[in-house]
Amino acid sequence: MPKKPGSHHVVPNADGGWDVKKDGATRSSGHFDKKQDAVDAGHKISQNQGTEFYIHGRWKIQNRTARNDHIAEG
Length: 74
Known about the structure:
The protein is α+β, with helices and mostly antiparallel strands and 74 residues long. The chain has one helix at residues 35-49, and strands at 7-12, 18-22, 30-32, 52-56, 61-65. Strands 3-2-1-4-5 form a five-stranded mixed sheet, covered by helices on one side. A hairpin with a 7-residue loop joins β2 and β3.
């Protein structure tokens, strides 16, 4: 299956917690109190939609996974 354009990101929310957002989207696909919950949901969404997946820290991107890669946060 060819990779679809776009990507999904786990990003910190300004009001606290973590959001899963698609590249260029105004609204989030989900909001979570715990980062790991956002990572799990974002990874599943990314796999289902065939997009790349990025995990951001508070200040920078920490991880990037291709659509079928496993997540190894470090």
